[in-house]
Amino acid sequence: MSAEENGAGAEDQKKFLYVNRRAPYGTIYALESLEVVLIGAAFDQDVSLAFFDDGVFQIIKGQDTAGIGMKNFSPTYRALGDYEVTKLYVEKESLEERGLTADDLMEITYEDEDDDWAEKSSVQLVSRAELSEIMAAQDVILSF
Amino acid sequence: MLHTVNKSPFEKTTFDSCLNHARPGDAILLIEDGVYAAVKGTAVAERVAALNGDLSIYALGPDLSARGIKDTSLIERISVVDYGGFVDLVAEHDVSQAWL
Predict the structure, then answer these.
(1) Rounded mean pLDDT of A11-33?
(2) Are B75 and B28 in contact (CB under 8 A)?
(3) Looking at beta carbons, which residues of chain A come within 8 Å of B68?
């Protein structure tokens, strides 16, 4: 079901960007952001997430928190597609500075209703300049 | 002397301050978000690799695992310790300085 059919008309929709710039377990920011995204998903808005600076560490694969007594919330990012949150922008420069590549990221996908429910990646690598443009195009930016 | 660093080297200057004040024979233990300094091929790795050989650098294993950092990703001079090793390091050194 598209957002329009779901209630909010296109004229009511705003572009929301959640900015994630913190590593996942040293502070509570990453988990708080994820929870707000999930809550906000109920409001039929045009939602996207940006991961840059230490925020790219949030979606690294292979996280195992058994030894530190904290909840591993990384699998939840893979459920975002079910909440129609399908645009995750990851900044290339932030990955490079941290010795990371796209191969180090979790596979986060969604099923595209406009393309016979084909499974597609929600992750889009963007340059720093492209991310600046994306931020400038938003109605609301929520920072974590 | 034992130094612990718990902040990401990409976000804070904590790790740099620690390196600027560490003396030969000291030990540095990376914990929590500090373990990101232990990874090779990053913007800060060169600084770690170039350090005086008299400095011992450790990273806490459970914090590496939580962050999806494999042992094969670590800078060669880094030794991984568990919580018991953390306690041993504290016991072995007269003074501990926590770089927060």
Answers:
(1) 95
(2) no
(3) 60-64, 74, 104
Q: Is the predicted pLDDT of residue A6 greater than 60, yes or no?
A: no
Judge contact between A87 and A53, C-beta under 8 A: no
Amino acid B31: pLDDT: 98
Share above pLDDT 70 across residues of chain A, in percent, rounded to a whole number: 93
Give domain limits for chain A. Answer: 12-143
Question: Could you tell me the sign of the dihedral formed by the alpha carbons of B38, B85, B21, B56, in that order?
Answer: negative
Preferred mutation among B4, B6, B7, B8 to probe A, highest tally of A CBs within 10 A: B8
The predicted model scores a pTM of: 0.92
Q: Is the ipTM of this complex over 0.90?
A: yes
The predicted pLDDT at position A8 comes to 60
- As a whole number of angstroms, the distance between CA B50 and CA A12 comes to 56
Sign of CA dihedral A90, B43, B86, A27: negative
Structural contact between residues A80 and A86, judged by C-beta atoms closer than 8 angstroms: yes
Looking at domain B2-99, its CATH class is alpha beta
CATH class name, domain A12-143 = alpha beta
Would you say A80 and A35 are in contact if contact means Cβ atoms under 8 Å apart? no
Burial class (CB within 10 angstroms; exposed 0-12, middle 13-18, buried 19+) of A34: buried
